[in-house]
Amino acid sequence: MPTKEFRVQKTSSRESVKTLISKARVQKRIKELAHEIRLDFPEDTLHLVGVLKGAIFFLADLARELHGNVSFDFIAVSSYGKNTDSSGEVRLTKDLDVRIENKTVLLVEDILDTGLTLDYLLRILRERKPKHLRTTVLLDKPERRVTDVHADYVGFTIPNEFVVGYGLDYAERYRNLSDVSILRFGDAQKK
Ligand code: IMP
Asked: Measuring CA to CA, which residue among 100, 172, 160 is closest to residue 133?
């Protein structure tokens, strides 16, 4: 009998999800990340910039674990459509509401995959002269990297699998799953 953590859940006739990282592990790791980040910037107001939409739960949980002053804003870029492969094109679809000049900015992203999105965002944000610019990603898939970008604070390094849940989607679905789960196609009966 598989444990709840590794149970395969059939979600449609063709798709199934299998937990990779439970909600409890995500929460524990976010506490650690918040502690680490605050140690590096003990006095600063941390201005979190969440990348819509995948980072919303990560940002919400991280913000509440960070002590001291925190503010946040959101930015959006074009991402994957219905496929699990990136087009390689990054486009800004929503800009920030407030200026970041002289702020300590923490870019909050759900997953670092090819690195194209983070590379693009870091380039445009750097031009706006923040006091500090750091990045945190909940998940890092280093095998897929095509740029030499890296995140300063990484939640989990994961294998090259397409994952959903905790904000991450496939064609806008599965964001509301509590666990980070692997999405499989056409093998709903397999463990
Ligand atoms: P990158 O530009 O290839 O690093 O991809 C970054 C974006 O692609 C993320 O913000 C996600 O929106 C999306 N993405 C990459 N890998 C996955 C995945 O495994 N599941 C869901 N979305 C993903």
From this structure: 100
Instruction: Dump pLDDT digits (tens) for 78-137.
Output: 855 445 565 567 889 999 999 999 999 999 999 999 999 999 999 999 999 999 999 999
* CA of residue 168 to ligand 1 center, whole Å: 8
What ranges in 41-165 are assigned the alpha helix state H?
56-65, 116-126
pTM assigned to the model: 0.90
Question: Do β-strands 104-112 and 92-94 pair in parallel, antiparallel, or remain unpaired?
Answer: unpaired
Q: Is 152 a catalytic residue?
A: no
- pLDDT single digits (tens) 132-153: 999 999 999 999 999 999 999 9
114 pocket-lining for ligand 1 (C-beta < 6 Å): yes
CA of 1 to the centre of ligand 1 (A): 32
Instruction: State the CB neighbour count (10 A cutoff) for residue 120.
Output: 17
| Helix, strand or coil, per DSSP, at residue 22 | coil
From the candidates 110, 113, 140, 169, give the one annotated as an active-site residue.
Answer: 113
- The CA 47 to ligand 1 mean position distance, Å, reads 23
